[in-house]
């Protein structure tokens, strides 16, 4: 059996049957936006199925979505841990919306769904499908109101608890882009802070040393965002810019720390591994070719942050 539960993440919440899902006697619940996380939690609370299929109101799913994702979820059910969060590839409306982001999402391998989680949510939220037990194990979404990156936070908590990620490699959802979508209200600083926290707890805490590939804006910002214990593990910045290489170092005035800047090819040496890449893909000519030319293994000798 399948059921559909509809909730609205704007002013209060009303189910598909028209009944208030927030406190009907509360004037605040009828006027104050409580956010997407709260809406999704209420929908799950009122549902009864063993599996959950999420879809935002402004998106469209293909007829075989449930069949395809249920099949993958059942196939991964015996993998242990906290279960599997399943997504799918997407198509966009309009078709040229966020081309770099869309291409990145659709091109990730199954392994990269985990490896590249520090960059962004590797499974688009409108494509999520999972067993109810997976949702319960992560304790649902944050209910801190509009502007919360509740999808990224959920994915990180799911992974930390031993959960796995998988994707049906066909476009099962049309992910619409428009100026009023809720994701525009999410603070970029909140996402950055969440990503840094996951990078430190999920990777850097287990390393003795590492380098930062990219001595530009994002590389320096990441360095400054790290906790002191993590900053002390940075052996160098790697870069291609002759000007930065000529300077020889980066001086962080805020913390009074000096970090060497060396040529990017040094990433092939064990001393500078792993390299945390702070260069955005698809924006810098030749960058991807430079990474590939070193023959490094992702997830061991380098990790993507940007």
TrEMBL record:
Transmembrane annotation, as ranges: none
A Pfam family the protein falls into: Glycos_transf_2
Molecular function GO terms recorded: hexosyltransferase activity
Annotated spans, Disordered: 1-33
Residue intervals of the Glycosyltransferase 2-like domain: 32-75
Protein name: Glycosyltransferase 2-like domain-containing protein
Native source species: Polarella glacialis
Biological classification of the source: Eukaryota, Sar, Alveolata, Dinophyceae, Suessiales
């Amino acid at each position: 059996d399948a059921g559909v539960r509809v909730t609205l993440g704007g002013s209060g919440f009303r189910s598909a049957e028209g009944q208030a899902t927030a406190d009907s006697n509360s004037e605040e619940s009828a006027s104050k936006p409580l956010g997407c996380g709260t809406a999704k939690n209420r929908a799950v609370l009122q549902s009864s199925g063993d599996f959950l299929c999420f879809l935002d109101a402004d998106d469209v799913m293909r007829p075989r979505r449930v069949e395809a994702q249920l099949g993958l979820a059942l196939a991964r059910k015996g993998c242990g841990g906290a279960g599997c969060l399943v997504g799918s590839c997407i198509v966009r409306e309009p078709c040229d919306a966020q081309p770099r982001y869309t291409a990145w999402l659709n091109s990730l391998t199954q392994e990269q769904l985990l490896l590249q989680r520090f960059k962004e949510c590797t499974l688009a939220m409108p494509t999520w499908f999972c067993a109810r037990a997976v949702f319960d194990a992560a304790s649902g979404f944050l209910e801190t109101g509009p502007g919360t990156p509740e999808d990224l936070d959920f994915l990180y908590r799911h992974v930390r608890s031993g959960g796995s990620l998988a994707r049906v490699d066909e476009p099962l959802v049309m992910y619409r882009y428009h100026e009023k979508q809720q994701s525009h209200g999410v603070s970029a600083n909140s996402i950055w802070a969440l990503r840094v926290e996951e990078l430190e707890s999920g990777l850097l805490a287990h390393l003795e040393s590492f380098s930062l590939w990219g001595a530009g804006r994002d590389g320096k910002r990441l360095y400054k965002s790290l906790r002191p214990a993590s900053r002390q593990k940075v052996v160098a910045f790697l870069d291609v810019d002759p000007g930065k290489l000529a300077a020889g170092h980066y001086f962080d005035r805020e913390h009074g720390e000096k970090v060497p800047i060396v040529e990017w090819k040094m990433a092939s040496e064990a001393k500078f591994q792993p390299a945390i890449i702070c260069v955005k893909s698809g924006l810098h000519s030749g960058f991807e070719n430079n990474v590939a030319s070193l023959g490094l293994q992702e997830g061991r000798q380098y990790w993507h942050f940007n």
